[in-house]
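Input sequence (86 aa), recorded before submission:
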Amino acid sequence: MSKSLSGPIVAAAVIALAFALNPSPEKHRAKIKEVIAERSQLERVLGIGQLTSFASHYHSVGVGSYTTVNDKVTSLGAFGLVFVTD
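Predicted structure, token format:
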């Protein structure tokens, strides 16, 4: 395989992998609940994580995804990983 062809093949494979591993809405909601419960015992007892995850809106951009609550980004996801913003 020539060097000029290997770059586009690798790029196509990474993009295909990103599409395949894009986190689902359930993964985002589970991570939001988990992170909020870890931050505060009171929020865990009051179920704030459950309420926040229920109110979140999932958005997919193909290779990644994110959730919003009140037009504020709550979580970002790509390659099967979800990160909750502060």
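Checked by second reader. The chain is about 55% helix and 25% strand.
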